[in-house]
Amino acid sequence: MTAAKAPGAARYLPAEHGLDALRAAAQCCRGCPLFADATQTVFGRGHPGASIMLVGEQPGDQEDRVGEPFVGPAGRLLARALEDAGVDRASTYETNAVKHFKFTRKSGKRRIHQKPGRTEVVACRPWLIAEIEAVRPQVIVCLGATAAQSLLGAAFRVSAERGRRVLLPASLVDLEPEPVVVATVHPSAVLRDRSERHDESYRLFVDDLRSARSGVVATR
Ligand code: URA
Ligand code: SF4
């Protein structure tokens, strides 16, 4: 089944594709089962004409409650890394491949993050594509495999390709000039890496963000 024919978010997209209209319509999305248990749709946030778009996996516990992406611990690490890479966070747009929090409950209370499956990623992709077409970023940074595989295909391997500039598959988005994509690890992976490698993982993450920044040409 092609992405276009798959059941998913496409039928919930509004006729008008401005960010505000998209954000409002996404609140009512029922394109996959994840809407049922989450608190709300967590749509992207940031500069509407951002030259850099950052794409995470899905909202976490705190993002689900607040309704905004990257407000929890991963977001704090990301903010620090962006600063260290010389990227002004206020000039970016941040979003996720999947817009609802997927979790299981542990002992009735704590909500434990679950990785979204391929079907959910594909179901949710129309929102991400619409955001890319509305924001028209020059560079898209995929934070982790879920974001990278949403845009670059299920065979894409972050470990092999991280930090390199690649192009989106033809016809995925309708943009001229086409944005370039840089994939890197997810900030949660850097956060979780408490071994003696932590400093090195953080440094490599910042290097990838710097490489993304250098893909922005100063025309706007
Ligand atoms: N992790 C993500 O991928 N996205 C968020 O918004 C928060 C944590
Ligand atoms: Fe819609 Fe995406 Fe939420 Fe699924 S995860 S209901 S496709 S917004």
From TrEMBL:
Q: From which residue to which does any coiled coil extend?
A: none
**Is Iron-sulfur among this UniProt entry's keywords?**
yes
Sorted alphabetically, which keywords does the UniProt record give?
4Fe-4S, DNA damage, DNA repair, Hydrolase, Iron, Iron-sulfur, Metal-binding
InterPro entries to which the protein is assigned, alphabetical: UDG_Type-4/5, Ura-DNA_glyco_family4, Uracil-DNA_glycosylase-like, Uracil-DNA_glycosylase-like_sf
Q: Which family does it belong to?
A: Belongs to the uracil-DNA glycosylase (UDG) superfamily. Type 4 (UDGa) family.
Q: Which NCBIfam families match?
A: UDG_fam4, UDG_fam_dom
UniProt-recorded name of the protein: Type-4 uracil-DNA glycosylase
Supply the source organism for this entry.
Answer: Mycobacterium europaeum
Instruction: Output the lineage of the source organism.
Output: Bacteria, Bacillati, Actinomycetota, Actinomycetes, Mycobacteriales
